[in-house]
Structures are given as structure tokens and as C-alpha cells.
Amino acid sequence: MGSTKPIDATLIAALQLGDTDLTDADKDLLRRALTHRSLIGAGTSYERLEFLGDRVLGLIVAEMLLKAFPQEDEGPIAKRHAGLVRKETLAEVATQIGLPAYILMSAGEETSGGRQNSAITSDVCEAIIAAIYRIGGLGAAQRFVEPLWRPFLERELEPPRDAKTSLQEWLQGRGQPLPTYEIVERSGPDHAPVFTIAAKVKDGTSRSATGRSKRAAEQAAATALLAELKKAE
């Protein structure tokens, strides 16, 4: 299991569970949320909890946004929401509270950089949210999520622009045809698929990106492609 830290008071405090009388079952649940599927003999990994955590996080963030921006329509709120629940945000939160050090994984996975893999750390963060929800209900999950996500919410006063729209407008402004998007790979379990999508323009320039939905992967690929086109201009 490499150099994984055991669940300790520091982690419990970071999860806002310091005042909770955790049972052995609760600790087992937290351990499962931290277990990567590469760990042979672990029984179950974090993947099912990740599925639940994604929904719990989405609900809490949606409520935060509706309270913070009472005059905004659904469209801008949806864009803000997508930015707040994306993989990059989750991975940043995971690093901020020290989650990577507690992830249970095989020695091989750790050697290959698994502990620093944002896809893994973001998934674990979602699984931890689900574990907190099961231990203490929605209130406990809110106490964990809200203070950590509020700085991200306040970071941009204007709703983020859609990456695909930005790429389209950049190309149209230069008289170029619209980009194409192609699914390169679909991996992961059925309940939590991962898509790799390539965005490509007429001259052959392309960039690929992954996401837990086709839309997320397309957005990430569009962001990467636009950055490359601007750099080459």
C-alpha cells in the first residue's frame, strides 16, 4: 500500500467530523472511500461512493449558487455549477485538505504517480463526500463542502464562458469552419464512465481531453485546443 497514512485525527478534522462519535462502521466507510481499485484484496473500492458523492456535491453546490445569485437565470447558474463540480476543482480541494496521502492503492499504482493523479484524487474527494453524507446526513456533507467550495464560487463574479462557444467564436472571427469532436475512447465502469474526446480544426490541429461525461470532455478538449491555436497564432 506504499506510504499511505492511516485515518487519523487530522483527517477527521479536515472532514468536519471531529465532533462526530464515529463507529467502526463509519471508519470502514471512510476507508472504502479512500480505496483505489488497484489494491488487490480490498474487496470494494471507492467507485460506488464516488457515484453518490457526485450527486450530493451537485445538490449542495446548486443550493449555494441559488442563494448566492438570486437574480441569475438558470443558464448562467448552470455554467457556474459545471465549473464548481468539475474534476479540476475536486482535485484542488482534495490536495488542499491532504486527501492524497490517505488513499489506499497498490504499490504499482503509487509508483506510476497515482497519488498525484487528478482523476484519482477528484474521484476520492467525491467518494469522501458520499461517506460523510452517509455518516452524518446532508447537514454533515454541507458542513464539509460549503467552506471549501465557497472560495471557488466567489472567485469569478461573472459566470464562466462556455469553452466550446469560445472556440467557435474564435474560429468564426477568422473565417474558419467550426471544429469537430470525436470520441477517442470510453473507459471506466458503466456507472462512472470516462470519455476521451478529440477536438479538431480544419488544418488538422487537435487536442484530446478526458471527462466523466461527453460534455465535460468536449469542454476540456475545446479549452486545450483554443489555447494551442492562440499560442500558434
From TrEMBL:
Primary enzyme class: hydrolase
Residues the record marks as active site: D54, E126
Cofactor (UniProt): Mg(2+)
Domain RNase III, first and last residues per copy: 24-137
Residue positions binding Mg(2+): E50, D123, E126
Localization, UniProt: Cytoplasm
Catalytically driven reaction(s): Endonucleolytic cleavage to 5'-phosphomonoester
Positions of the DRBM domain: 162-231
Family recorded in the similarity comment: Belongs to the ribonuclease III family.
Protein name: Ribonuclease 3
Organism name: Hwanghaeella grinnelliae
Gene, per the UniProt record: rnc
